[in-house]
Amino acid sequence: MRAFIFPGQGSQKVGMGSELAAASRIAREVFEEVNDALGTDLARIMREGPDETLMLTENAQPAIMANSIAVLRVLEIDGGIALADKADAVAGHSLGEYTALCAAGAFTLADTARLLKLRGQAMQAAVPVGVGGMCALLGADVQKAQGLADAAAEGEVCEIANDNDPSQVVLSGHISAIERAVAMAKDHGIKRGVMLPVSAPFHCSLMQPAADAMQAALERVPPAAFRLPVYANVTAAQVTDPTEEIDLLVKQVTGRVRWRESVIAMRSAGVEQFVELGGKVLGPMISRIDKDAETISVQTMDHIEALARDL
Asked: For the chain, N or C: smaller number of CB within 10 Å?
């Protein structure tokens, strides 16, 4: 069995998609469609930057999605591969769940781009700059991370945002609580804590205003039927009901990204091969979760051609 997976925020970089756009008309059409949907030249920002503009959450989220979908469209159209024929499930990390839903036919490309731009704007607006923060805990499992979060909170928000793999957990919340967590990490048997260069405290209860905004947006643009099952971040379980997915996407804004558990669930369901489209972030995590799982990263035309031959 095979799952196609899609990266989340942090995988963006200036120049992303440029090589593929130069090589494929199909990729250029994806970027043009996203530009039209957003009313801005996001493709130019992806290609030329500057980095601080691409890093803005409202740009990074649709850019990462557009890059992944461009890879997928080239694979499908130029490579003659039908996703529904070659995959048994799809999944994505954080915003990557929207990309997975687009790949599965639940959202159009244009609607996905608009939803992600809104999601990015709502997340940024939910907490004033400087109030919230995030840190990565290296050498931490969930139990140690939870103990640290409880100790560092001191009445403020300090919550597990991402359970990425057995050695990396991310905390999110008030900046002072996150700074305390970094300072206290070694006392809790954690190798070290590292502050993350983010503009908002994603995936914690401080994001409730953004969750409310996404609830309204998803009621206006509900997902259609899926061509493939999607593994949801907040449950680490397979979902096929579009109505249920609305609730899960809203909860995802404030809820934990259960990536480690999602991979375990997919492996338990029989998935042997994970194909990451548009990045090389999730594959290493999966290898740390289960060293026997096969991972493939597909980003360039050469990668696409090689995968098309092998599928």
From this structure: N
